[in-house]
Each structure stands twice: as C-alpha cells, then as structure tokens.
Amino acid sequence: MYRSQKLSLRYFTAAIVLFGVMILFGLLSALYYLYPSMLFNVFNFSTSKILHIDTLVIWLLMAFMGAVYWYLPKELGHEVVGMRLAEITFWVFCAVVAVVALVFVFVQYGSANEFTLWFINQGRKYVEAPRWATIGVVAVMLVFAYNVIGTAVKARRMTGIMWVLVLDLIPLLIVYLDAFPAPTNMSVDLYWWWWLVHMWVESTWEVLIGCVMALVLMDVMGTSRRIVEAWLYIEVMLVLGAGILGLGHHYFWIGTPRYWLGIGGFFSALEPLPLLGMVIHSIYDAGMHRMKTANRPAFYWITAEAFGNFIGAGVWGFMMTLPQINLFSHGTQWTVSHGHFAFYGAYVCGVLAVFYVAKQKTAGTEFLDGRAWKWSFGLFNFGMIGMVMGLLIAGMAQAFYGRAIGGSTLMAFTQASENPWFIAGMYARMGFGVIFALGYVVLVYDLLTAPRRVPAPQTPMEPA
Amino acid sequence: MKVEGATTHEGRAGLDMTDPRFWRAGAISTTLVMLVVLAFLSVDSMRVISVGGAHVPRYDVVNRHIGYQYDWSRREDVPVIGAPEPLFGRTLTEAQATALVREGKLVIQSRACMDCHTFFGNGAYYGPDLTKSWLDPAWPQIWMPMTGKPTREEAMVAFLMNPDQYPTWTRAMPNLHLTEREARATVAYLKWMSAVDTNGFPANFGKTQTQQ
Fold it and tell me: Which of A146, A195, A231, A401 is such that its CA lies 20 to 30 A from the CA of A110?
C-alpha cells in the first residue's frame, strides 16, 4: 500500500465521521418543522441547518481528496510527492473544521461588523465558515493541488484521467475565492456566489466524480482505459457544454437581465444529457462484463451513482428548472427535494463505492461481498427516496398554494406551511430520514468489521 | 467499432469516434466556447445589476415610495419607484443611504438570515422569502397594531429587535439581539431590495387575499 493510500484512509474516516454529523443535524433540522418551539432562542434552526449543509460540503470534499490520494500513485506508478506536507495538512483541515463547528454551536452569530465575518460566521449559504477558516481550506486545497501536479511532474507520466483531474482543480480553486467578499448589493453577491456554488456542484464536482467513476470502473470491473477515457471526455464535453451556461437557471430572479430566462432554461434542459450518458456507460460496461465484479458493494454503489445522478440531479432538476415553473417552485421544499436527491445520487453513492474499494484493499480479499452492505444499501436508498418524495409533496403544496395562489406573502407562506400536504410531507421526511440514518449505522458497522471470506463465484453471474 | 464511412473515405481516417482523442478535442473546444460566451454575458449582466444599473436602483431609493405592480407590456410584476417617502421621516444623502444599506447587509450576514429565509428565493426555506418583505401586508395588518407603532418602518424595527415577542404563528423568529441601529439598517436594506427588478419574482405578491 502506498503512503498516500494510508492518508486516504484517514480522509475517508474523517469523511464518514462528518457524514454522521451531517445526518445528525439533518434529523434535528427536520424536527424543527414538526416542533418549532424546540430549543427556541437557544439553538435555532439556522445553526442546525448550517451544520447540516456545511458538513455535507466538507465530507464530500474530504472523500474526493481521499479518492484522489488513493488512485494517484496507482495511476502514475509513483508515490505521491510532498506526503509529509499532505499528512500535516490533513490534521490542519480537521482542526479547522472542528474549531468552526464549535464556534457555530456555541457562538452562533455576531454583531454586524467585519470581526464577525472573519471569526464567527459569514452568513452566506454553504460558505458560512468565517474567513480565517476559508483561508485554511484554500491552503489545504493548494497543498492538494501541489501533491497532484508535483507527482505528475516527478513521475514524468500523465494519463487522460489525470489531465482532466488536474485541469478540473484549477476552476475548483478559483471559484472558491468567492467565499471571501461581502458585497452590499445582493444581486452582485448572488451572481458570483452562484459561480461558486453552481460551478462546484454542477460542473467541477461532476467532472471530479466522473474521474473517480472512471477509476473505480477500471478497478472493480476491469473496463479498458480506452473506453473509460473516451466516456470521460464525452461526459466532460456534455457536463461543461450544458453546465457552464446552465448556470443561467440561477439568474432568473436575482435582478439579472431577462435573456437569462431563455439561456438558463435551454441549457439547463440539456444538463440531464451527460448524466444519461453515465447511465448508458455503466449499463454498457456492466453488460460487457456480464456483471462480473470482484467487489459487489462498490459495483452496486457505482451503479446507484449512475442512476441517482441522472434521476436526482437530471430529472429532478429538469422538473423545476424551466422559468415558467421555477417562478413558483424556486425556494420551496421542492428545491430541497432536488438538492437531497442530487447530492445523494451524484456524489454520496459515488464516494461510498470508493470506500468499498478501499475496504477490499485493506481487508486483502479477492472478492468482496457480504450481508451488511446490502442492508445499508437498501436502507440508504429507501430512506432517501422516501425523504425526496415527502419533500416533493410538501414543496408542490408550497408552490401551488403559497406561491401561485397565495402570492408569496408572509400569510401565504404560513398558510401553505399549514396545508395538510405540507405537514404530511414533513412527517414523511422525518420518518424516512430516520431510516436513512439506520443505513448509516449499518454502513459504519460494515466498514469496521472484517469481511467474511466469500469464495469468488466461478461462473459469471447472470444479470439480475 | 469505426464510424461508418471512415474506412472508405481515406481523408476522414482521423475521425475515429472510439478514439478518446476525438472526444478530448470536443471537450476542450466546447468548454472554451461556453466560457467565452459566459464571460461576455457576465460583463453585460454586471452592467445591469450594478447599483444604478437598469435593474438595481441606487441606495438612496430608500427616500422614495416603492410599489410593485403588474406591467401589461412585460406581463409580469415590476417595482415602481414613486414619490418621496423618506425612511424614518428623514431624507438621506446618497452617501448616508449607502452606509446604512451597507450596514444592513452586514447584519444580514452576521445573523445568517439566509439560513432560515430566502433572498430572491435563495437561502433556506424555514422562514418566508424576504425579496419583497418591505411591501408585505403583514406589517400594516398585523405588526403595526401588535407593536403599537405608527409606521411600517418603526413596526419593523420593533419586530426585528424582539421578534420572539411578536409571533404570528408557532414557527416564530428567534431573538438575534439586534441593536436599534442594526434593526434600522436592516429595514433600509429590505426597502432597497424591494426596488430591485427581479423579472417578476415573486408573482402576484400581496395581490391575493388569503383567508385565515
């Protein structure tokens, strides 16, 4: 095992811990909708929500970094350059996250001045972390970029996948610089904030997970490099071809010019295409290899990723993206439904596959299977689909009663939130959220226990 | 599998769709074209959304009456900037208004308003959207009588300083300990923001009578 792969395992461990924290604050946030007076004035919804969405970003980022540290030496046949620095950075990253979380929990907010923005809370969704911590994350990302690029230079070798990965790190870092400013003008603020949020989630992360998927497919199914590279380029072409101007679907209502309604609508309607491509790719590969794999949990999660990305990000996104619908669906629980499904399908399923690849290696088994992972797979998927449906019903009630009929005032908002469909949706989300959390418990159990020695099947398995 | 015809037309031998390099060229060129288009559109958008641009008023708009009316030529609601109507009864210079609205933004970030509310529909969905909250009929109908204040802006200040004392339903706003100065700055921010042209979002605001 390479030294950088040991670091990967540390990143995966930290990611799984933060995944748990995210679920915990997700459950708490859901509970406020049912018991609004809970912890009132002590620990408010906003703090719980910040912890829910910020841990989401950080644990996925850590898992991506772990995945890159895992595959980098394997791809380039060379130990990662600057490992000592990378190991120190890991602990710095953990310390930054811990301090920020403690400040969020115990200090929560500050007065209207620059001190608050530097040391307590920046109050911009997803990038609430104070500026000092943002500098810390930039430093971590710079070391990460140095590791990747330095290794490629030292190894005097580059693969297509590594090229895509390196080039993808550049915009990933540049747009993150928007986590610092605090423009007074909300339109300008949101304009650049969306460059950060959209370009991360709907562009650079999609490319990153495309690279990770390519590597995992080669690993667990032995797909040829030529095929995964051709598919990766097709995916990049479609993801960025549709996604860069698909940014326009965030520019419908923030004060921006009218032409964004047409441009954003058109290009975001194209955004499901690359995701459909990934589904075709994975079915094609699975068929080519007659679903024969050395690592069943990783194979199932990578397949779930393909479908989840297409349905959660693609279909659920398309459903609410055209401006005629978005005028009413924007900023309701409908968005939350899409957000949950997309993050889960596009990213969570993908990194879970990588966790199982790492588990197989550390366990040193030829063929990885078992019973616990199936329970976790089932509970996660069942819990997520249930949450997404509950949120969708609640969001549609808000869009129709609160927005289209009610006219979006405080009273319309209140009445839509008291609509029986909304309330039923919130209870469903809570219940299925608990099921999702059970999936997490089984996942942790499964990853921590040594696998049973299962003999590899001698004959190729028939497709289910 | 080769592209049909690729073997018969020698000149097209380079067009092999199973060759990753073919798609690499496609990925690079597509991305560059889209980035260039985005750069041009962003320059133009900045012109429109800068303060004083076609869609975003100057901060001293807080000295004026602001309405939100259906425009038949555009088929959507648009903000209407009307007669002088100074905020808190005092006409501000542009510099004073800018400083006040700027402080309002700092209040909004320091209290993480966006993690319960939405601005232009962006943020969290626990509280109502604040895009047009300056114009919300709840201020004159509910909070002016509740706080006993004679004007909309004073009722807003009273509410923002002690929201937990003036709840309208079970999901109430917590007390975030705004000073009076901070509350007034926030009100100025919300008044300015209600004058931004948002392409008709939200639709029908305040036009529909909802029943209790």
Answer: A195
Question: B37 with B64, same domain?
Answer: no
Are the C-beta atoms of residues B154 and B90 closer than 8 Å to each other?
no
Shortest alpha-carbon distance between residue B108 and chain A (Å):
7
Give B 142-181 residues with CB within 8 A of chain A: 164, 168-172, 174-176, 179
CATH of the domain at B104: 1.10.760.10
Put simply, the answer to whether B112 touches A121 (Cβ < 8 Å) is yes
On whether both B133 and B64 belong to a single domain, the answer is yes
Query: Can you read off the two tokens belonging to residue A111?
Result: 């007065």
Task: List chain B pLDDT tens, one digit each, 212 residues.
Answer: 444 444 444 445 557 787 888 999 999 999 999 999 999 999 999 999 999 999 999 999 999 999 999 999 999 999 999 999 999 999 999 999 999 999 999 999 999 999 999 999 999 999 999 999 999 999 999 999 999 999 999 999 999 999 999 999 999 999 999 999 999 999 999 999 999 999 999 998 987 654 43
> Residue A124 belongs to what H/E stretch?
none
Give the Cβ contact number of residue B148 at 10 Å.
10
For chain A positions 114-173, those within 8 Å of chain B (CB to CB) are 114, 116-117, 120-125, 128, 160
Q: B135 in a domain, yes or no?
A: yes
CB contact B182 to A (< 8 Å)? yes
Query: Which domain, by its residues, includes B115?
Result: 59-193
Does residue B146 lie in a domain region?
yes
| Helix/strand/coil for A12 | helix
Q: How far apart are the C-alpha atoms of A125 and A178, rounded to whole Å?
A: 12
Please say whether the beta carbons of A359 and A447 come within 8 A. yes
- Rounded CA separation A429/A433 (Å): 6
Q: Is A41 on the interface with B (CB under 8 A)?
A: yes
User: Per the domain annotation, does B105 fall within a domain?
Assistant: yes
Q: pTM above 0.90?
A: yes
B86 and B110: one domain?
yes
Element (H, E) at B69: strand B64-71
Count of Cβ atoms closer than 10 Å to residue A259 Cβ? 14
Q: Which helix or strand (DSSP H or E) is residue B132 part of?
A: none
B77 and B108 in a single domain? The answer is yes
How many residues would you count in chain B? Answer: 212
Shared domain check, B180 and B75: yes
Measured between beta carbons, the chain A residues lying within 8 angstroms of B179 are 111
Beta-strand relationship, B118-119 and B122-123: antiparallel
Could you read off the pLDDT of A371-417 as tens digits, one per residue?
999 999 999 999 999 999 999 999 999 999 999 999 999 999 999 99
Asked whether residue B198 is assigned to any structural domain, the reply reads no
- Per this entry, what is the length of chain A? 464
Judge if B88 and B31 occupy the same domain: no
- What residues of chain B, 71 to 130, have a C-beta less than 8 Å from chain A? 98, 101-103, 105-116, 118-129
Residues in B 184-203 with any Cβ partner in A closer than 8 A: 185, 193, 196-203
Q: How many domains is chain B built from?
A: 2
Tokens of B33: 């074209």
Question: How many whole angstroms separate alpha carbon A355 and alpha carbon B88?
Answer: 59
The answer to whether the CB of A269 falls within 8 A of the CB of A246 is: no
Does the structure's ipTM exceed the value 0.90? yes
